[in-house]
Amino acid sequence: MKRIALLLAFALCLPLTAHADEASRRVKAQEMINLMHLDRLMEQMMDTMMQQASALRNQLAGSNVNPQDQARLDEFQQKAVELIKSQMGWQALEPDYVDIYAKNFTDEQLDAILVFYKSPAGIALVDKLPTLTAEGAQLAQAKIVALQPQLRQLIEEYSKSVTTHGATPK
């Protein structure tokens, strides 16, 4: 009887241990996110998206917008920005990111990652990551621009071959 009681007590403690492990991983995941400055990266991405949206808005609206339409356009943009930030801003996403990191890393992995991000190399990586990301994006953009003539040529060749063989491109 004592064995059954002991086994039952042990079985009841297992969920508490699992919950403690989950809580530990969440705390470590939060610390990792803080050390990585994901809030800054997300804000930079959000700012870039907003700048692109503003540029697109200006391009679509053109330069002949009357003051009343401009006021409505500005109000629309402000509401859209507020809506997007409420759902995709860092405050809205941070708990989900903690969940993602806590779910995908073990305690031991998080411990090792935290050691790295607290090291001089980890700090340097975090400091340089925005620059690295921007330079990588510029590199990719330049490669795409350089490929455009070749891609146009391929499209033309494809169109000709489809037209020659009786099918029409869709």
Please give the structural blueprint.
Elements lengths: L1 H35 L1 H24 L5 H22 L1 H15 L2 H12 L1 H45 L6
What does this structure look like?
By secondary structure, this protein is mainly alpha-helical. The protein has a domain at 2-118. The protein is 90% helix and 0% strand. Helix 1 (2-36) packs across helix 4, helix 1 (2-36) runs parallel beside helix 5 (107-118) and helix 2 packs antiparallel against helix 3 (67-88). The protein is extended and about 85 Å long. It starts with a helix and ends in a 6-residue tail after the last helix.
Summarize the structure.
By secondary structure, the protein is mainly alpha-helical. Helices cover 90% and strands 0% of the residues.
> Which residues form runs of ≥5 with pLDDT under 50?
none
Distance N terminus to C terminus? Answer: 77 Å
Mean pLDDT value: 84
Shape: extended
What portion of residues is helical? Answer: over 70%
Radius of gyration of CA atoms, rounded to a whole number = 26 Å
The proportion of residues in beta strands is under 5%
Strand and helix order = HHHHHH
Number of strands: 0
Largest beta sheet, briefly? Answer: none
Count of runs of 4 or more consecutive helical residues: 6
Category from helices, strands and their pairing: mainly alpha
